[in-house]
Amino acid sequence: MRLPRVRSVFIALSTVFAVMLGIPATTALAEDESAQGSGEPETVECVFQCSREELQEFITNAGSDPTKIVLGLLDTDIDETLVIPAGADITIVNAPTTDPNYVNDTRLLRENGFAGTLIEVEEGQS
Question: pTM of the entire structure?
Fold first, then answer.
């Protein structure tokens, strides 16, 4: 038996404590099992801020399974090329928020001095 409300409260409280301690709070949230296998993408989410490494891990772990990656409330600084593997089925979206302290336009930003390719999609299966 799943308790989605308890889980949501736990995630919210964990995020608040992590922010208070200055720890980047990232978690992967899978949608309900009923959505999986029904053609709905799995959702993984950066709760507060995603590092490039965490975002790359989400992309890599998705494999060829349909996956929606929700960015955190703060911009993601990119200091190395993000690589989307051949055959990946991912969508990257902004974090939805109604909090007036945050806007719903988080971005992938080049870290100062990084002049390489921002995102590389490997050639292969479609």
Answer: 0.66
